[in-house]
Design goal:
This protein is of the alpha/beta class. It contains 15 helices and 13 strands. It folds into two domains: 3-173 and 356-373, Rossmann fold, CATH 3.40.50.2000; 185-353, Rossmann fold. One of its GO terms (biological process) is bacillithiol biosynthetic process.
């Protein structure tokens, strides 16, 4: 059994979820898990034996123009590595977490192994900034092992940073005990959705890259042919523009803005179709959550999305911004009973086969074993 430190952005979507769920599964296997973060990760919502939380306190002394999160994190990591005698520090995001881990290791002079998992945004957004590029490259190359959540992200990282560092693909996963199709038909009534109406869902942090207006435009075509409602779940910078667009298109009585929601699996369980039409997406964890609940998905031919959706099997892959194509595939799924039931059961099968939490957990444990035996 290993003593593993985990650092993630505790409030950031998919990466925070994966880091926390992985920590929980590892703890269930008997590993000792130490979260080092600035807040309790939001999925760590009860007491778990074998899991410890070490808070990074960022002091804001008047001499600092900006509170030094990175240095406070490195100092806390070093303290925890020494005191808890960690074997491994597994950080999510190269920037700044891998850099902090390297600094912490140098400070404490213990041979802790550093594993960095790339989730996308640090490469596809930060990697474009040339002043940060060299630092991200340094963080990746100095890590003992690096993983990424899709083949697409591996290729993009190696190209963008011009590095030959080996990066292993370990896909994301969902906790099958939480994500399965539940009988929540009452919920449909609660939201005043008629029984015969189909439910289309989009979940994101409403950043520009998520292209939520494309979801709304596609829906305004779909609703023309199929009696349906659109659930928009999440919140973020584009939220009010989306609200305005819905008014302009005159579909306000068909779109439900639900904001941030905790029990997303309940909402997925009343949904018939999931749309993720992003222009950047290294994986699309929300797709996997939908598939686990038997919801067919339509996603763009971008990043890791085609590694999650099997075109014509569990949903459809569409070209970015092609509203007509999105609407026509959606109408096919929503109106053809056989396509719907086939895609729904195939989606659940793919989650069990390709993305099973036990398989992914095993891949991380194997990596930990390897890195610890590397001397
Ligand atoms: O998508 C976001 O804006 C959040 C971001 C994150 O850091 O949580 O998501 C990234 O990591 C997720 C977990 O691996 C992936 O499912 C998302 O595709 C990825 N987002 C992007 O690549 C834009």
């Amino acid at each position: 059994m290993a003593k593993i430190g985990i650092t993630c952005y505790p409030t950031v979507g998919g990466s925070g979820v994966i880091a926390t769920e992985l920590g929980k599964l590892l703890a269930e296997q008997g590993h000792e898990i130490h979260f080092v973060a600035s807040q309790v990760p939001f999925r760590l919502n009860r007491v778990y034996p074998n899991i410890y939380y070490h808070e990074v306190e960022v002091s804001n002394y008047p001499v600092f123009q900006h509170p030094p999160y990175d240095l406070a994190l490195a100092a806390k990591m070093a303290e925890v590595i020494n005191r808890e005698e960690l074997d491994i520090l597994h950080v999510h995001y190269a920037m700044p977490h891998a850099i902090c881990a390297i600094l912490a290791k140098q400070m404490c002079k213990r041979d802790v192994k550093i594993i960095t998992t790339l989730h996308g945004t640090d490469i596809t957004v930060l990697g474009i900034d040339s002043s940060l590029k060299q630092m991200i490259k340094f963080g990746i190359e100095q890590s003992d092992q690096v993983t990424a959540v899709s083949n697409s992200l591996v290729n993009q990282t190696q190209d963008m940073l011009d590095t030959n560092k080996r990066i292993e693909v370990i896909y994301n996963f969902v906790d099958e005990r939480e994500y399965y199709r539940k009988s929540t038909q009452e919920l449909k009534k609660d939201y005043c959705i008629e029984e015969h109406e189909k439910v289309i869902i989009h979940i994101s942090n409403f950043r520009k890259v998520k292209r939520v207006p494309d979801v709304i435009h596609a829906f305004s075509k779909i609703v023309h042919d199929v009696p349906s409602k659109l659930l928009l779940v999440g919140d973020g910078p584009e939220y009010s523009d989306c609200y305005q667009l819905v008014q302009e298109l005159g579909i306000e009585n068909r779109v439900l803005f639900l904001g941030k929601q905790e029990n997303v699996s309940d909402l997925l369980s009343i949904s018939d179709l999931k749309l993720l039409l992003s222009e950047k997406e290294s994986f699309g964890l929300v797709l996997l959550e939908a598939m686990a609940c038997g919801v067919p998905c339509i996603g763009t031919n971008i990043g890791g999305i085609p590694e999650v959706i099997d075109h014509g099997e569990t949903g459809f892959i569409v070209e970015l911004g092609n509203i007509d194509q999105i609407a026509s595939f959606a109408i096919r799924i929503l109106t053809d009973e056989k396509t719907m039931t086939d895609f729904s059961s195939q989606a659940r099968e793919v989650v069990k086969d390709k993305f099973a939490s036990s398989t992914i957990l095993g891949q991380y444990e194997e990596l930990y074993k390897q890195v610890m035996s590397d001397g």
